[in-house]
Amino acid sequence: MAMFLNILQGILFFRTFVPSYHTLLFIMAGIYLHVPFCASRCVYCDFYSTLHLEKRKDYIAALTRELRLRKHYLEQDGQTPAIQTVYIGGGTPSTLDTPLLEEVFNILYATYDIVPQAEITLEANPDDLTLPKIHELRTLPVNRLSIGVQTFDPDKLRLLHRRHTGIQALQAVSDCQDAGFENISIDLIYGLPRQSLEEWDADLSTALSLQVQHISAYALIYEEGTRLWKMRRQHIVEEADEELSLKMFDHLIDELSANGFEHYEISNFARPGFRSRHNSSYWQGIPYLGCGPSAHSYDGQDRQWNRPDLTGYIDHVGRASRPADFDNAPWIEKEELSLYERYNDRIVTALRTSDGLDLNRLKSDFGQTLYDHCLQAAAPHLRDGLIERISSTREKQVPNDLLKLTRRGLFLSDGIMSDLLYVAD
Fold first, then answer.
1. How do residues 146-176 score in pLDDT, each as one tens digit?
2. By the 8 A CB rule, do 303 and 341 touch?
3. Torsion over CA: 187, 190, 195, 196 (sign)
4. Residue 188 lies in a domain
């Protein structure tokens, strides 16, 4: 799962009207549901998925049981937070029949306090978005679609083993808009084998013509063990030149910014008011519950995740009958985060965003020593113009003191973040 592993009008609303971040942790949360099914597997994907579509009903039975029994996970001091976002990812959630999705939403709304204006996202493949399917989705609480386009180039789509064509992608977005979906995101990938800068610019031009509200764009990564990784080892494909990939990223920023998109996170662009509230909550450290095989959860202090095993998930969760069955369960792995690990998480997630790293919060949450370490490590990058420190005072609010990556810093973000991390002896 990509950490990918996100509520009202985005985080900024709560910064304005909620007294403090610590209060925020206890009143809001998100839910992530991992749907592991795919009709075929893309060559680059390393997310947990399976082609065993015949297990969908058994999976939904286990998933709804987990949702009922794990409500306690999000409780803080006896209080159950309001659910601001639900994200159904995968895999390919659009492979689920509508009655199965209805079962999930029935349990969600019966079990959790989901606010009326919650962001409810469903990931979908273009070829699944037939007119009947789209109109069925309109009967569900889904109000945001994340469509996996990746590219409009037919040759590149075949290389990636995507099931759709560029024409199908265009038609799917248009049909969703005609059906009334007003919050649509599309995913793009650049740095594909043999992809030229001109071909990438053509993809950007086509994407902009769709008038969607959100675009996520990622450089192709050759994850170890994937079919693409093996194809590179066998010299079937060659990895894109780093300089070319940087030019593509540069063009991405220029084109989307010129067309009214906010570059609010390294790989994410949104029209004003359409940032992904679910993903933003990850970067802000908001607690979330993850259900389904391989799904991760975070309670504000520690992480845990279900093992990536659909058969084991269906078997173990299917036999659970009480919340205590999920405490120290053999199918769940846990990681207790130290102060230093939580500090490192904050560095990596906050610096990815245009909001930047809040130094006041950093000091109050992690203490003077780590605050001083951060500033000392940031000093050379500040001198080189890769990071900027922004201080301002808003009326009736604590002064802002932020570290943010500059435009040049975005291209070197991994190295900069690494320098700011704390490595315990």
1. 999 999 999 999 999 999 999 999 999 999 9
2. no
3. positive
4. yes
